Amino acid sequence: MSKQVQQVETIFCHEIGDDYLVVVERDGQRLFRAKLGLSETSAGPRPAKFRLKDGSSEEPRQPDEFVELARRAKRIRISEQTSKQGREELMEMLSGYQLEEKAKAVRTCRYCASAGRYSPITTETAVKDDNDWICQDCARQELERQLSYSGGGAVTGAAKDRLEELMLEVQDLERIVNLLKGQLDPDLTKFDTISATTDEVDPVRVDSLNLHPGLQGLLEDRFETLLPVQSLAVENGLFDGEDQLVVSATATGKTLVGEMTGLNRVLNGKGKMLFLVPLVALANQKYEDFQDEYGHLVDVSIRVGASRISDNGNQFDPNADVIVGTYEGIDHALRTGKDMGDIGTVVIDEVHTLKEDDRGHRLDGLISRLKYTCEQRAKRRDDYGGAQWVYLSATVGNPEQLGAALESTLIEFEERPVPIERHVTFADGQEKVRIENKLVRREFDTESSKGYRGQTIIFTNSRRRCHEISRKLEYSAAPYHAGLDYRRRKKVERQFGEQELSAVVTTAALAAGVDFPASQVIFDSLAMGIEWLSVQEFHQMLGRAGRPDYHDKGTVYVLVEPDCAYHNSMEMSEDEVAFKLLKGDMESVMTHYDEAAAIEETLANITVGGKAAKGLNDRMLGDVPTKHAIGKLLQYDFIDGFEPTPLGRVVTEHFLEPSEAFTLVDGIRKDAHPYELVADIELRDADL
Predict the structure, then answer these.
(1) Is this prediction's pTM over 0.85?
(2) Nearest C-alpha neighbor of 274 from the set 282, 283, 262, 264
(3) CA-to-CA distance for 622 and 361, rounded, in angstroms?
(4) Is residue 197 part of a domain?
(5) Quick one: which of 82, 259, 417, 580 could link to 548 by a disulfide (CB 3.0–4.6 Å)?
(6) Is 432 in the same domain as 400?
(7) Which class for 674: exposed (0-12), middle (13-18), buried (19 or more C-beta within 10 A)?
(8) Contact 133, 127 (CB under 8 A)
(9) Are 564 and 665 members of one domain?
(10) 3-state secondary structure of 409
């Protein structure tokens, strides 16, 4: 022990029962541990026993060896966790050997001291545990133990990292554990704030527009000046027929960009307007909006559905001035050879749909076919100048690239009218509903400076879950999804608009669509069906929180179930996905083709364009393997030369993939009931 004595740097003393634990260190490394016992003498307290500890065994040594160690040490540290009486006894003993100047009481980790480790902590590094302060390493271990004890033993990965990060930030273990018990501590749940921003744009006065008198008067009655994104569009040739890609946040007024130029061209005899959206619910809403706002100026019609089984018209008048439709509804009209007349303006809302695996290729193909149809019409009619295209989106990761691919002028405006505060908390599926109830109540009980109560959109991943949550909310709430009939959906929209509902619970599939002026968005799930949301979809949804004319700010809560997945095919867990979405960059919008998508769009292009199909394929955004697709179409007997066969025509008119077509043909040959054949594929397209 003599060699060790000569190299002693620190002696640490911590009270254990009637004795003291002694830890001897050099260069931050423990040399050994010992137990020190003092006894009272006429000269004061003195070492009475000194035993080296090795695991559970103890080796008795001469008490004077402690005194020799203390003399050799550079410093002696006494744990603040030692009782006042114990500290005084140690200091009196050290004073008896003139060693008191080396000694100092320090704050140390209680757990480390009990385990025989010297672990000094400071105000900056300590973590509160009940009434004690512990080191960060022990706090991490204790957090893990507490989570396991409270039923959160599965908390690992990104969730555990987040909780540890928060614990070290606030230096309080109990507050972190309480997060998993549903306590909504805003200092802990808050992830960040997306600040309100205002780009400097000189507003265009409405009375300077020189539009058709009917539209000009209507706009002058509503506005004095245009909003910034609208002003930018006008300054960049909107009324000169320039094709434009307008990228701007939700509620910044980009929809009116398409409406203004489309209606002006209609009223000036430059062709009808098509306003195309991805969802039936949104098409119905836009149709009613157009009827209410512009019905006295133009005839409005709607074209939705008809993509699978029947074509019952859907109130569709191809001669109307304005046709609101879903992508598939208008594409069906093209695939079945309906005469759309002179089209003067095409507005594609939610154009970022181009990137979706299942539907992006259909929008890509529709744009190509519709452009071809307009161009052919223009060639036949010298007095018809073709169509102006306006593409709208709030979420595009590659706006310059997309604008160039669409041959459009990019109008990008990054203003966010109100700030959005984003929060993350952890809970299991049942606990989520309790938290949602608390959040909905709190929001609805709050009134903005503009006089509106706070209302909530809750996004979840299934229709069944929509009903489950809405039933359990204490304040008035309603489910809203594509499985509800039109009348029920319109009732929910009206009730929400009139502030009769505190919340709507909807599926992620409707995120891009219906216009609910909510102040708060809650993510009950980060999945759409059995697929995780993309960063783009996530931003599209959270952007629904906060409207400048209604609210002072938007609030978003992401409720995360650690280590949860909704299907065994999902590779990541919900907590991993949550931080990927919160921190991730917006994905690029570009269409990708697998074999089935290439075959479907090539067949549709042949049906519409015949020998021009290759040119239609070439102008699409995605890279379509045309030769391979045509070879497969010939092999499947879907085409004969550059004409669809009767089978091919049925396939393209009903948006069938080859595998679906073969299933139907095989079933027909086996006399299967038609309902059995169509039910499966029809259910997959329930949200079109």
Answers:
(1) no
(2) 262
(3) 8
(4) no
(5) 417
(6) no
(7) exposed
(8) yes
(9) no
(10) strand
